[in-house]
Amino acid sequence: MRKYEDTYRHKGLRKKLIDILKEKGITDNNVLEAINNIPRHYFLDSAFDEIAYEDRAFPISDGQTISQPYTVAYQTQLLQIKPGEKVLEIGTGSIYQASVLAEMGAKVFTIERQKNLFEKTKSFVLKSKYPTLKFFYGDGFEGLPTYAPFDKVIITAAAPFVPPKLIAQLKTGGKMVIPVDEGPHQRMLRLTKNADGSYEEEAFENFSFVPMLTGKNG
Ligand code: SAH
After folding, report:
1. CA-wise closest residue to 158 among 128, 178, 131, 130
2. Bridge pairing between strands 65-66 and 58-59
3. Would residue 217 count as lying in a domain?
């Protein structure tokens, strides 16, 4: 059994990470505080204890990645989370991004298409800390019609296009943060849904995500 410990050393490394995120332009204190409160090393294999606090993406199982802290902070900042909001996340992966959202008080519904990654969520070490965090095995392109509408939607894989069903599951005035493009880099977009079902689009920095794939695996 792995022993999970959040030592002073880890806390110190996390403080340094917060300083790096501030230097890179993250200004939302609620986001910085959430990242400061979460032991990111719990989301990686114990061999990578220190690397967990470097500002870089890292491979997890099944050829997938835990997003770079800057990317997590950036997407979360764009979402403008308020406590109690219903948030749909596509791409559970390591559960780190979902935990940041839950730490900020959101009710998080997160979908993963890879069966083995979904199975791992059942023994998530911070499960009892985030009772409003719910895990689903499925295809993110379909969203979760049963739980819609959502205040916010976040896609943490490279989307080839804006999935129409996810727009449909957003509340009027709700926001979606989504990296879009099939090439090596994706433009981060924030979409705000209008009452007639159309949306406004704002474009931000470029990032590089693993692809959002159709269908389930496993
Ligand atoms: N949010 C994650 C980042 C994981 S990387 C974290 O904090 O660690 C992207 C994840 O999206 C991968 O786990 C991948 O399997 C998943 N994914 C890709 N396409 C998907 C889809 N259509 N539906 C659900 N998950 C998908």
Report:
1. 178
2. antiparallel
3. no
Distance between CA atoms of 201 and 162, rounded to whole angstroms?
Answer: 11
**How many residues does this entry show for the chain?**
218
Q: Is the CB of 140 under 6 A from ligand 1?
A: yes
Q: What is the pLDDT of residues 24-80, one digit of tens each?
A: 999 999 999 999 999 999 998 888 888 899 999 888 877 788 889 999 999 999 999
CA 100 to ligand 1 center in whole angstroms: 16
| Domain tally, the chain | 1
Q: Is residue 197 part of a domain?
A: yes
CA distance 171 to 168: 8
Whether the predicted pLDDT of 218 surpasses 80: no
The 10s digit of each residue's pLDDT in 167-211 is 999 999 999 999 999 788 999 999 999 999 999 999 999 999 999
Among protein residues, the one whose CA lies closest to atom 4 of ligand 1: 93
Please give the radius of gyration of the chain, using alpha carbons only, rounded to the nearest integer.
16
* Coil vs helix vs strand at 186: strand
CATH number at residue 184: 3.40.50.150
